[in-house]
Write a structure and sequence with these properties.
The protein is α+β, with helices and mostly antiparallel strands and 233 residues long. The chain is 46% helix and 14% strand. The chain is globular.
């Protein structure tokens, strides 16, 4: 997990778009794994910091690959995240994101509530992408409010779950748990406007993270998962 995080931070740094912490060390000592990163003294984010974050995230997303995925698997929280390269985004998301989490949900006893409607959604997934072909953008992958901060008025991102995919999935995650203000979204939209139909796809990308939370933390996320599934279907 730590080695994948190191590789993710290095990948984000390649884009030269948003500051990430420097890597000070990673390995095993006295039988325990460790990851040591640059230490920050965070200050309170301002509208200007959020504006910079929106602009720089759009710049990060303009750093692209020829295919979707990444050269290695990593984790989303403690859950494995498969990143096998694919030429087709819909197939990638269906197999390595949606159905992966649906299989975990079935194993955790949520088959009737989540897995069955999820399979119905999976069979019609391409309908959400009619007229839209996303770039394979470099993604943070887990961009919630706790994974960015302000250092001397400059935005910093960390704790990534990196891969190359639809940029809308990063935006969807920012909207799931809060922590991003109007200045962030306005700056991102000005830098790279969202495509038509993104409102529906944002729910799809949020579903992935809600299913992951359901599988990690239990039934408190079940109602949200069912609502997103019903809306999408």
């Amino acid at each position: 997990m730590f080695e994948a995080e190191v590789d993710g931070l290095r990948e984000l740094k390649l884009a030269k778009a948003i500051r990430v912490p420097e890597i000070l060390g990673c390995g095993i000592e006295n039988g325990e794994s460790f990851l040591e990163l640059e230490r920050f003294a965070f200050d309170r984010p301002t509208a200007e910091t959020e504006r910079q974050l929106g602009e720089r995230l759009a710049e990060l997303h303009r750093y692209t690959a020829d295919r979707f995925g990444w050269f290695r698997d990593n984790t989303i929280g403690p859950t494995p995240q498969v990143n096998a390269w694919s030429d087709d985004w819909v197939s990638f998301f269906r197999e390595q994101r949606l159905e992966f989490q649906l299989d975990l949900a079935a194993a955790n006893g949520y088959s009737a509530d989540v897995s069955k409607p999820g399979q119905k959604l999976s069979s019609k997934l391409a309908d959400l992408f009619i007229g839209y072909e996303p770039d394979a953008s470099l993604l943070h992958g887990d961009l919630w409010g706790g994974n960015w901060g302000s250092v001397n008025g400059e935005p910093v991102i960390f704790d990534p779950a990196v891969y190359y995919g639809d940029r809308e999935s990063d935006i969807a995650m920012t909207m799931l748990f809060g922590g991003f203000g109007k200045a962030f979204y306005a700056a991102y939209e000005k830098s790279w406007p969202m495509a038509a139909g993104h409102e529906r796809r944002l729910k799809l990308y949020q579903l992935y993270h809600v299913l992951n939370h359901l599988n990690l933390f239990g039934r408190s996320y079940l109602a949200r998962a069912r609502q997103l599934l019903n809306d999408l279907i």
